Each structure stands twice: as C-alpha cells, then as structure tokens.
Amino acid sequence: MEVKELLAQYAQGQNNFTAIDLSGVNLWGADLIGIHFEQCRLQAAILTFAYLNQAYFAESDLTGIKLSGSNLNQATFKQSSLYNADLHGASLQKAILKGANFNYANLVDANLTESDLREADLSHANLTGACLRFANLREENRKIAKLQGANLEKVDLQGANLRNADLRQVKLQGANLKNAILRGVDLRGANLTEANLEEAVLTDAQLDQVALDGANLKKAVLERSRLVGASLISVNLEDAILREAKLMKANLKQAHLHLARLNGADLHRCNLSGANLSQAILIEANLVRANLLNTDVREANLLRAELSSVDLSQLNLQGATMPDGRIHS
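That's the Pentapeptide repeat-containing protein sequence above. Prediction below.
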C-alpha cells in the first residue's frame, strides 16, 4: 500500500489495516491516532515524531522501525517484533507491550511509565535514562521480562515489579529503584553503584559479587538475601532489614548501618572498618574474623553474637549489649 492511499483512507475514517506491507514507508510526523496495524509489516518504516496514541500494532513486524520522539501513549505492541527499533525519546505511557521483542532496541530516554512489559524481551536493549516508573514486568506465573545484558544506567524503575527477574551482570549505575519489588531477583555481578534502592524489597535476592558502592538502601528489606563478596563501600543501609542475610567477605567499609536489623546475619570475614553500626540489632549475628577497626557500635545489640577472633579494642562499644547480655559502660 502506498502512503497516499493509507493517509486518504485514514482521513475518511478507515483505521483498521490488517496484513498489509508498509516496509520502508515514510510517515514522519504523521497523525495516526488510534490506527490499527494487525499482522502488518512495517520493517524500517519511518514514523519519527508521529502521533500514534492508542495505535494497535499486534503481531506485527516492526524490525528496524524509526519511532524516535513519537507519541505512543496507550499504544499496543502485543507480540510484535521491534528488533533493533529506534524508540529514542518516545512516549509509551501505559502502553501494552506484552510479549513484544525489543532485542537491541534503542529506548534511550523513552517514557515507559505504567507500561505493561510482561514477557517482553529487552535483551541487549539500551534503556539509558528511560523512565519505567510503576511498569509491570512480571507475570503471575513468574514469567518476567528478559533484561540480560541490558543497559539500565540511570533508568527510573521506581515502584516497578521485578520479582524473580534475571538481572545478572546488568548495568544499573545511578538507577532509581525506590520502592521497587525485587523479591527473589538475581543480581549477581550487577553494577548498582550509587543506585537509589530506598525502601526496595529484596527479600531472598541473589546479590553475590554485586557492586553497591555509594548506593542508598535506607529502609530496604534484604531478609535472607545473599551478598557474598559484595562491594558495599559507603552504602546507606540505615534502618534496613537484613535478618539472616549472607554477607560473608562483603566489603562494608564506612557503610552506614545505623538502626539496621541484622539478626542472625552472617558477617564473618566481613570488612566493617569505619562503619556505623550504632543502635543496630546484631542478635545472634556471626562476626567471626570480621574487620571492625574503628567501627561505631554504640548502643548496638550484640546479644549471643559470635565475635571470635574479633579485635574489640578499636570499637566504640558505649551502651552496647554484649553477647553475654551485659551492657558495656
């Protein structure tokens, strides 16, 4: 179908187009609000800065399509292929993207607020600076959007549901994950340097060898999470819940753990030099061979904690509850 014919039919009220081939067409800046493209071919089509609010692209081939700067709010791309598509700066608020293929797509600075990305494949997509606030990325049957190898630096995922997601080796430096649901997520080897995870839920998460230097995890929930060998230098874990967390050999140098709840946590061989553990709860915590040089544990609760081979001479223990229950003067 030619562009003129398409636009003429649309102007006359026809907006349902099924199984047509529009590969390579130039519709730059076109006003096609509410148009339906079902099972269509739009490979390498140019729809830059187009108005496509509530458009329907179900089961269509959009490989290499140009949609940068387009308005795609509430559009549907269900089960469509957007492989290597350019969506730089596009607005996709409340868009339905369930099962869509975004392999190698450019989503830099795209707005995906409240979008439905369940079962979507975002492998190797570039989402630098994208906004995914309150986006839905998980299905009830635990199918999750694929994000392996994706670039999510400075992405906004505030409140997003990423439960059980596979985020190994993902780049999330400076990302906003405040209030995000990350229960059971696999972030092994991921880079979350200076990320905002305030009040995020990371219960049962896999965080071995993760980089969280300078990150904000204030009031985050990390119950039973694994952080073996993790780098947490200068991290903010104030009032965080780390009950039964595994932090063996983690680097928590100068970390802020004021009021943190570390009941039953495993911190053996952990570097806590210069850390602030004042008023922290460390009941039955394992601190065997931990480095506590110049650590502040004032008024902390160390009842039944294991402190074998720990040098207590450099600690500020004023008001702390010791393993035997006595209060240190």
